[in-house]
Protein backbone atom coordinates (compact mmCIF):
# COMPACT_ATOMS: atom_id res chain seq x y z
CA UNK A 1 0.00 0.00 0.00
CA UNK A 2 1.26 3.49 -0.86
CA UNK A 3 0.89 6.49 1.41
CA UNK A 4 1.44 10.21 0.96
CA UNK A 5 1.20 12.87 3.64
CA UNK A 6 0.18 16.49 3.17
CA UNK A 7 1.21 19.30 5.51
CA UNK A 8 -0.20 22.81 5.26
CA UNK A 9 1.85 25.62 6.68
CA UNK A 10 1.76 29.35 7.37
CA UNK A 11 4.35 32.10 6.84
CA UNK A 12 5.37 32.09 10.50
CA UNK A 13 6.12 28.35 10.39
CA UNK A 14 8.23 28.85 7.29
CA UNK A 15 10.31 31.47 9.07
CA UNK A 16 10.69 29.44 12.25
CA UNK A 17 11.18 26.33 10.14
CA UNK A 18 12.23 24.01 13.00
CA UNK A 19 8.66 23.18 13.96
CA UNK A 20 7.76 22.41 10.36
CA UNK A 21 10.98 20.49 9.81
CA UNK A 22 10.37 18.32 12.89
CA UNK A 23 6.86 17.58 11.73
CA UNK A 24 7.94 16.59 8.21
CA UNK A 25 10.78 14.41 9.48
CA UNK A 26 8.46 12.73 11.94
CA UNK A 27 6.16 11.80 9.06
CA UNK A 28 9.10 10.42 7.09
CA UNK A 29 9.97 8.13 10.02
CA UNK A 30 6.54 6.54 10.37
CA UNK A 31 6.33 2.76 10.58
CA UNK A 32 4.79 2.70 7.12
CA UNK A 33 7.12 4.98 5.19
CA UNK A 34 5.30 7.42 2.91
CA UNK A 35 6.03 7.71 -0.77
CA UNK A 36 6.10 11.50 -0.36
CA UNK A 37 5.43 14.24 2.13
CA UNK A 38 3.87 17.25 0.43
CA UNK A 39 4.36 20.64 2.05
CA UNK A 40 1.57 22.91 0.82
CA UNK A 41 2.63 26.56 0.59
CA UNK A 42 0.21 29.02 -0.99
CA UNK A 43 1.54 31.91 -3.05
CA UNK A 44 -0.58 34.20 -0.90
CA UNK A 45 -2.31 33.73 2.44
CA UNK A 46 -5.49 35.73 2.03
CA UNK A 47 -6.54 35.81 5.68
CA UNK A 48 -3.11 37.16 6.64
CA UNK A 49 -2.67 39.25 3.50
CA UNK A 50 0.81 37.80 3.14
CA UNK A 51 2.58 36.70 -0.02
CA UNK A 52 5.28 34.01 -0.02
CA UNK A 53 8.01 34.18 -2.64
CA UNK A 54 9.97 31.07 -3.61
CA UNK A 55 13.07 32.53 -1.94
CA UNK A 56 11.28 32.44 1.43
CA UNK A 57 10.93 28.66 1.36
CA UNK A 58 13.63 27.13 3.57
CA UNK A 59 16.35 25.22 1.69
CA UNK A 60 15.99 22.12 3.83
CA UNK A 61 12.60 21.45 2.21
CA UNK A 62 14.40 20.88 -1.09
CA UNK A 63 17.55 19.27 0.28
CA UNK A 64 16.71 17.01 3.24
CA UNK A 65 14.98 14.21 1.39
CA UNK A 66 13.92 13.31 -2.11
CA UNK A 67 10.53 12.40 -0.60
CA UNK A 68 9.69 15.98 0.38
CA UNK A 69 7.67 17.81 -2.26
CA UNK A 70 6.42 21.38 -2.35
CA UNK A 71 2.95 22.18 -3.63
CA UNK A 72 2.30 25.82 -4.50
CA UNK A 73 -1.18 27.12 -5.24
CA UNK A 74 -3.57 29.90 -4.45
CA UNK A 75 -4.90 30.06 -0.92
Detail the topology: elements first, then pairings:
Blueprint: E1 4-8, H1 11-16, H2 18-28, E2 36-42, E3 44-45, E4 50-51, H3 60-63, E5 68-73
Parallel strand pairs: 1-2, 2-5
Antiparallel strand pairs: 3-4
What report would you give on this structure?
- The structure is a single chain.
- With 75 residues, the protein is an alpha/beta fold.
- The chain has helices at 11-16, 18-28, 60-63; strands at 4-8, 36-42, 44-45, 50-51, 68-73.
- Strands 1-2-5 form a three-stranded parallel β-sheet, with helices on one face. Strands 3-4 form a two-stranded antiparallel sheet.
- β3 (44-45) and β4 (50-51) form a beta hairpin.
Q: So how many helices?
A: 3
Number of strands: 5
Summed over residues and divided by their number, the pLDDT gives a mean of 90
Q: What structural class results from the helix and strand content?
A: alpha/beta
Order of helices and strands: EHHEEEHE
Helicity range: 25-40%
Question: What's the end-to-end separation, in Å?
Answer: 30 Å
Strand content: 25-35%
Question: Strands of the biggest beta sheet: in what spatial order?
Answer: 1-2-5
Rg result: 12 Å
How would you sum up the major sheet?
A: 3 strands, parallel
Spans of at least 5 consecutive residues with low confidence: none
Shape: globular
Amino acid sequence: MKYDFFVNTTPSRLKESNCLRSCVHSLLRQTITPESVYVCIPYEYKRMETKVDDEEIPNWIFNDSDKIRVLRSND
